[in-house]
Amino acid sequence: MALYEHIFIVRQDTSHQRVEELTKEFTDIITKNGGEVKKTEFWGLRSLAYKIKKNKKGHYVLLNIDTPINGLKEMENSLMLNEDIIRSLSIKVKKLDEGPSIMMKSKDDNEVKINLSNNSDSDYSNQFSNNFNNVDL
Fold first, then answer.
1. Rounded to 5 degrees, what angle do the CA atoms 43, 44, 45 make?
2. Residue 64 and residue 15 in one domain
3. Phi-psi group of 46: left, alpha or beta (phi > 0 → left; psi -120 to 50 → alpha; rest → beta)
4. Helix or strand or coil: residue 80?
5. Whole-structure pTM value
6. Same domain membership, residue 88 and residue 39
7. Lowest-pLDDT range, 39-43, 44-48, 132-136?
8. In CA terms, which of 14, 32, 33, 44 is 20 to 30 Å from 113?
9. In this predicted structure, what is the pLDDT of residue 106?
């Protein structure tokens, strides 16, 4: 069996409960075809880079899948027929990440950066505050 990362985007006006139902539907398709969904991540309602089918935002979902190609093809066919799905992408990978994806890590990284910038021992934060005070507004 092959390993895939699959991301799909659901319309912005769809409820969170419906997004979970869709994720369950696609997971069931994979398991019926002898595959397994290793990880599911809901990235939330995010802004799109450009409008897609009159949507400015979408619910993003990531699935890490271990399945034969026929299971993936059947899931992709189901995705194309579903009106709530505005985009999807499957990528074949050599190994699946065990931990959280980069999208989930970015929230934690921002907190770390904020805590580091508030450290009074850092020369960078003192330099920034001195430069900011000298700016004429």
1. 135
2. yes
3. beta
4. helix
5. 0.72
6. yes
7. 132-136
8. 44
9. 62
Same domain, 29 and 91: yes
Say whether both 63 and 130 belong to one domain.
Answer: no
* 90 closest CA partner among 3, 11, 18: 3
Using alpha carbons, select from 74, 48, 72, 78 the residue that is nearest to residue 60: 48
Report the distance separating Cα 103 and Cα 80, nearest Å.
25
Question: Among residues of the chain, what percentage have pLDDT more than 90?
Answer: 53
Tally of structural domains, the chain = 2
Say how far apart CA 125 and CA 117 lie, in whole Å.
6
Please say whether the beta carbons of 1 and 69 come within 8 A.
no
Domain that holds residue 120: 100-137
Q: Measure the CA–CA gap between 86 and 101, rounded to whole angstroms.
A: 22
Neighbouring C-beta atoms of residue 62, cutoff 10 Å: 19
Say which DSSP state 101 is in.
-
Q: Are residues 27 and 69 in the same domain?
A: yes
pLDDT at residue 116 is higher than 80: no
Which pLDDT belongs to residue 118?
Answer: 47
Pair 106, 49 in one domain: no
> Which token pair is 29?
């398709």
